[in-house]
C-alpha cells in the first residue's frame, strides 16, 4: 500500500483534499495505466492497488475496463468523476474517500465498499451486478442513488447514519436484503418520494428502523370483517343469553303482550 497520510486528522481529512500539496497528488491517468497495463505480481503475491491519503487529480476513467485485481482507495480525495461504467473488477473499496460523483453503471464485482465515503453529487449503480454486498454505512450522498435494475446477492447496507440528500431509486432491482436503520433519506427537501416505485424484489428482508422519509408500509389485514358505518351492533340480552334483534323467531313473528287497562 502507498500511504500518503500525515497522521494528523485535520490534515488527512479528504474534504480538504484540494489543499494537499503535490507530494500527495497522483494523476488519475497514471492509476488507469497501472490497473490496465501494470506489472504482474511477484511469485507468491496477489496483485492489487492500494492507495491511502492521496489526492487523485483529473478524471479516473475505467469505463469498460476488465481489472484483474482489487482496488482500494482509503480516505482519498478525487478531483474528478470516478467512472467504472461497464467495468469488471475483483473488488472496489472507497472507504472514507471524497468524490464529486460516482459513475458505476453496469459494474460487475463481488463487492462495492463505500463506508464513510462522501459523494457531493450522485451515485449511479443502475444495472450493476454485485455478488455479495453494497456497503454504504455512514456514507453521505448529496444527490441521489440510482440503483434501478441493480442486482445484489446479499445485502444493501446503509446503516448507522447513511445520509442521502434526494432519494434512493431501486426500480426493478433484485436484492437479497436491505438494511437502512438509522439512515436519513430525502433531507434536502426534494419533492420526490424517498423510495421510487415500483419497489425492489426482496428475497430476504427489509430493515427500515429509524430511517428517515421512507415509504409507508401498508396496514396488515385481519380476519375480522369491517363494520359498516351507521349500523347498530348492540345485542339485546334475554334470560342471560344474547340474542340478535334482527333475527326472526323460529315459530313466527314475536308476540307482543298487551297491557291491561
Folded structure, characterized:
With 261 residues, the protein is mainly beta. The protein has a domain at 2-6 and 25-38 and 45-207. It has 1 helix and 28 strands. The strands form 5 sheets. Strands 1, 3, 6, 9, 12, 13, 16, 17, 20, 23 and 26 form an 11-stranded parallel beta sheet that branches. The chain starts with a strand and ends in an 18-residue tail after the last strand. Mean pLDDT is 82; it is low at 210-220, 235-246 and 248-252.
Q: What number is the mean pLDDT? A: 82
- Globular, elongated, flat, extended or rod-shaped: what is the shape? globular
Multimerization status: single chain
Order of helices and strands: EEHEEEEEEEEEEEEEEEEEEEEEEEEEE
Give the number of helices. Answer: 1
Low-confidence stretches: 210-220, 235-246, 248-252
Query: Gap between N and C termini, in Å?
Result: 111 Å
- Main sheet characteristics: 11 strands, parallel
Count the beta strands: 28
Structural class: mainly beta
> Can you give the helix content as a percent range?
under 10%
Work out the radius of gyration.
Answer: 30 Å
Amino acid at each position: 500500500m502507498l500511504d500518503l497520510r500525515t497522521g494528523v486528522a485535520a490534515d488527512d481529512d479528504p474534504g480538504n483534499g484540494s489543499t494537499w500539496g503535490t507530494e500527495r497528488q497522483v494523476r488519475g491517468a497514471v492509476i488507469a495505466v497501472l490497473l490496465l497495463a501494470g506489472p504482474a505480481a511477484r511469485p507468491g503475491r496477489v496483485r492489487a492497488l492500494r492507495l491511502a491519503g492521496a489526492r487523485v487529480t483529473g478524471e479516473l476513467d475505467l469505463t469498460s475496463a476488465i481489472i484483474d485485481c482489487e482496488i482500494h482507495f482509503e480516505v482519498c480525495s478525487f478531483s474528478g468523476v470516478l467512472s467504472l461504467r461497464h467495468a469488471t473488477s475483483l473488488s472496489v473499496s472507497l472507504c472514507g474517500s471524497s468524490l464529486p460523483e460516482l459513475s458505476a453503471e453496469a459494474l460487475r464485482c463481488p463487492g462495492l465498499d463505500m463506508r464513510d465515503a462522501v459523494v457531493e453529487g450522485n451515485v449511479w449503480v443502475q444495472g450493476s451486478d454485485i455478488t455479495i454486498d453494497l456497503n454504504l454505512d455512514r456514507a453521505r450522498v448529496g444527490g441521489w442513488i440510482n440503483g434501478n435494475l441493480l442486482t445484489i446477492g446479499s445485502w444493501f447496507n446503509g446503516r448507522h447514519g447513511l445520509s442521502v440528500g434526494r432519494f434512493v431509486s431501486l426500480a426493478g432491482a433484485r436484492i437479497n436484503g436491505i438494511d437502512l436503520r438509522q439512515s436519513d433519506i430525502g433531507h434536502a427537501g426534494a419533492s420526490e418520494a424517498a423510495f421510487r416505485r415500483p419497489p425492489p424484489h426482496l428475497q430476504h428482508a427489509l430493515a427500515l428502523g429509524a430511517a428517515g422519509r421512507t415509504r409507508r408500509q401498508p396496514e396488515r389485514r385481519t380476519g375480522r370483517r369491517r363494520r359498516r358505518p351507521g349500523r347498530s351492533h348492540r345485542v339485546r340480552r334475554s334470560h342471560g343469553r344474547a340474542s340478535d334483534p334482527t333475527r326472526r323467531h323460529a315459530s313466527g313473528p314475536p308476540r307482543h303482550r298487551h297491557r291491561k287497562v
